[in-house]
Amino acid sequence: MTTATQADTAGKAAKAQTLFDKLWQRHLVKEEPGGPSLLYIDRQLVHDVTSPQSFEGLRLSGRKAWRPETVLATADHNVPTTQLERRSGADGISDPLSRIQVDQLTRNCGDFGIAEFGLGDERQGIVHVIGPEQGFTLPGTSVVAGDSHTSTHGAFAALAFGVGASEAEHVLATQCLALKRLKPMLVRVCGRLPERLGAKDLILNIIGHLGTAGGTGYAIEFAGEAISELSMEGRMTLCNMAIEAGARVGLVAVDDKTIAYVKGRPLAPKGEQWKAAEAYWRTLASDEGAAFDRVVEIDAAGLRPMVTWGTTPEMVVPVDGRVPDPMHEADPVRRGNMQTALEYMGLKGGTPIEQIQLDKVFIGSCTNSRIEDLRVAAAVVKGRRRAPNIRQALVVPGSGLVKRQAEAEGLHQVFLDAGFEWREPGCSMCLGMNADRLGKGERCASTSNRNFEGRQGAGGRTHLVSPAMAAAAAIAGHFVDITQF
Ligand SMILES: CC(C)[C@H](C(=O)O)[C@@H](O)C(=O)O
Ligand code: SF4
């Protein structure tokens, strides 16, 4: 009896699993000790840039998409965002390569029987916005896309990560993928975020702490009071940038907010299936006492609004801080990197962040283009005007449905009245792949997730910030402490 009880206890203790362990185990087809394991992939998202190669590969080997109903495609990276250019669909794209990629996506989806939200479809938008919006991304599923920011979908406790074009091809053909097991890391954020700070400030803080390689080889689970307090939009912002800390996977456990967000979405289960699904989804949290390979604790209450000053997301400081001085950096490699970054950014060490004058503002991208982001930005902008030195302030909703919702709430009018531009959905100025770009030397406050050299256009200078900060910077013409603005 005693022995049995001990065995039970030991069994229970051994069974405490992290959320990542649960998702991993559920999708495991074949485990190879030491080597990569074979995982079952439930869903795949496809966009215009990385998919041509995958489809071409299928054609060359004479293979079909095995379960085309598990794939959803949209055009986002190459699409223009002005109404005028959008009127004529892909024909309105002046750049020939962009036009070919958008056209090709439609042709490939037709040939392989895959659903596509193309130009002219109100459901079109950034791949990481439309997946959750449609209920295509569901808790407990495994989701891949030929796009590194697929980590976004982990906000729903989905095992979601970016893959290369040949891996995406393999998933299309077999629904399986070989992957080396990731190590679970816990980032526990206790306390509450101060007023006017958002998920973007939090994740920039975390990346500043971990560094851009700190998450390499890990799946990061975000937990704690500050995470529970975040909306699903905020959790998506957080997981979106897990990859910027090097982690292919970001995760948040299922709670009431997850369930409420998914319920009633077009592709979410209904009726009896919903009940069964919800019961399973509610198990998707790390067990008490589950072992993580690394645990990082952060206190949200002491955080400040963040602004990047350099050319990686870890080069970040609070808005009331200064651009760091490389002369104070003891490590020669770090010092060299700082100097190179400052030169590119046209900044001097010691400059107060609030004195940095801007040329452009971009509110959009899969990090911050959801309805909540637009609400936050509009609340800052309301009744104010764009500063004269801001040549352009773009607001680009993440999908046609976000756009419609924002218009129903009158947010577009708030932006237009303040001298901002209200655009059609797409990746837009997040990356220099469509007509929305920075010119050489132009400085931008951007709500996107990457700031490397030339990211928003050759010679362009990117500062990553929250939507509230971007909006305030457009009004003031420079960075401001949004907790006082
Ligand atoms: C084009 C695509 C491969 C790329 C990515 O994987 O992330 C893009 O979305 C990005 O943000 O740089
Ligand atoms: S919005 Fe930016 S980060 Fe997101 S998928 Fe598009 S290019 Fe990549």
Automatic annotation (TrEMBL):
HAMAP family for this protein: LeuC_type1 (MF_01026)
Family membership noted in the UniProt record: Belongs to the aconitase/IPM isomerase family. LeuC type 1 subfamily.
Required co-factors: [4Fe-4S] cluster
Gene source species: Pusillimonas noertemannii
Binding sites annotated in the UniProt record for [4Fe-4S] cluster: 366, 427, 430
Alphabetical list of CDD domains matching this protein: IPMI
Keyword Iron: yes
Keywords: 4Fe-4S, Amino-acid biosynthesis, Branched-chain amino acid biosynthesis, Iron, Iron-sulfur, Leucine biosynthesis, Lyase, Metal-binding
Subunit structure of this chain's protein: Heterodimer of LeuC and LeuD.
Database matches in PROSITE patterns: ACONITASE_1, ACONITASE_2
Taxonomic classification: Bacteria, Pseudomonadati, Pseudomonadota, Betaproteobacteria, Burkholderiales
InterPro entries cross-referenced by the UniProt entry: 3-IsopropMal_deHydase_lsu, Acnase/IPM_dHydase_lsu_aba_1/3, Acoase/IPM_deHydtase_lsu_aba, Aconitase_4Fe-4S_BS, Aconitase_4Fe-4S_dom, IPM_dehydratase_rel_enz, IPMI_cat
Catalytic activity entry: (2R,3S)-3-isopropylmalate = (2S)-2-isopropylmalate
GO BP annotations listed: L-leucine biosynthetic process
Any one GO MF annotation of this record: 4 iron, 4 sulfur cluster binding
Enzyme Commission number(s): 4.2.1.33
Domain annotation Aconitase/3-isopropylmalate dehydratase large subunit alpha/beta/alpha: ranges: 21-477
Pathway annotation: Amino-acid biosynthesis; L-leucine biosynthesis; L-leucine from 3-methyl-2-oxobutanoate: step 2/4
Enzyme class: lyase
Stated role: Catalyzes the isomerization between 2-isopropylmalate and 3-isopropylmalate, via the formation of 2-isopropylmaleate.
Co-factor binding details: Binds 1 [4Fe-4S] cluster per subunit.
Name of this chain's protein: 3-isopropylmalate dehydratase large subunit
